Amino acid sequence: MFVRKKSNASGIVSVQVIDKSHGNYQVVKTIGSSADAVEVQSLYLKGKRWIEAHLGQQDMFNQADQAQEEKQVVEYLFSNIESVLINGTQLILEKVFKSVGFDKLGDDVLKHLVTARLSQPLSKSATVTYLKDHFDEDLHYQKIYRYMDKLYNTKQEEIQRISVDHSRKVLGDEIGLLFYDVTTLYFETDHSDDLRERGFSKDGKHAQPQVVLGLLVSRGGYPLSYSIFNGAQYEGRTMLPIVEDFVTRFKLNDFVIVADSGLMNKKNKDLLNSAGYKYILGARIKNESEKTKDWILSLNKSDGIFNEKKIKGTRLIVGYSSKRAKKDKYNRDKGIKRLEAAYKSGKVTKDHINKRGYNKFLEISQDIKVTISQEKIKEDERWDGLKGYITNTDLPAMEVYEQYNGLWVIENAFRVTKGTIELRPMFHFTPKRIEAHVTICFVAFKVYKELERILKLKGINLSVDKVLNIAKTITTIKVRLPKSDTVMTKTMLLTPRHQSIADLIYYDI
After folding, report:
1. Which domains does the chain have, with CATH numbers?
2. Pairing assessment for the beta strands 475-481 and 13-21 based on DSSP bridges
3. Least confident of 41-50, 293-302, 408-417
4. Where would I find the Transposase IS4-like domain in this sequence (predicted)?
């Protein structure tokens, strides 16, 4: 028996195993057919192996021939490789980008910038190199900057609409809860302007200019809307403009606003009430009237027990947590140790101290003598584990507590955007590019959250960050076939880690 390559009129080559007996040729087995020379050679070798297995014999000369033939096939393959892409993240993220609906924008530049931001956040100039080296995408940095100068005015509204429509879809067509919080984004510069100003920095970068970012997310942590404010803006004045704009644009009716105590002041409560909005806010229980504080401190401290009191048309709900009490004590002890180390000499001027944090335990006399007040510490201990909530809803106290605790989703949003996506520090200086940078990061976070949801649906027990790290090691080989002048591609899943995310690579999301 031997292997025959038979050319057909169509240009297809059939590879067959032939048996010659008494001068007659008979087709024993057809191995396959192809118009590609590389594949034909592979089929030929497969036919040779079939004969060996069928006859149950090995021929040392045939083995030597096969080894040589295999080497030639592989060398031929290598000589026609056009490119090797390290594009695992691109293959996954572009599918997720499309599943959210952002492909409707018809904006490849945004798609590339979002994919790069989630794959390897870099400067815009370095992003150009990354896109070319890893994905073979050509995007000039000057085009990126021109694009950013017009992105905010041309796409932001539609981007937020797509994000909201998608969130409604995955949440059963109901937004329900609106979680709001703010953070600060600092700049690597000493220069300020009308937008970038110094203020209270949540990153501890008080000497650097910043902007304030207000973010609105739904339950589950899906981003809905955002707005940028002057860096010196008091955070309590940022919530109402975003909420009112969002509610008007997307015609929301039945919803509850949830925000922490940093946004709870009389003006905000009055505005929320006058607008007819339902809300759950963190209460500043230590700032209540003496009568209310006495009531709070008289309550039985038991886990899971809530007490409430009517105050000017709203409900003040107070709960206790032994876990929170331990945390309060730990934080206070840690703060006092810092004070003891900082002021161990017992002398300091008023110019070198503020009343933030645990400095409230200090007493200053004659501008030089400093002591730590044990009386103030004991007073503070009485509040350990207590937490209050202000609401105008009729929800049961436990449900108010649970919905308020949902604020962790927005804390997680800031963690991801500042960490994985590297929203800050910023190196842009014009308002247009600052807005554009935040818009790109907003879309990137939406894609991140959607991938997180998809992983749960597919039963892939990995975090988004771990999936992206695995995907960064996946390559795609492109081979050009000389005779047909076509390109064949093959994405290589070579390890068990690669196989663990195969569903994201090979199948639609």
Report:
1. 2-79 (no CATH), 137-290+390-454 (3.30.420.10), 326-381 (no CATH)
2. unpaired
3. 41-50
4. 179-444
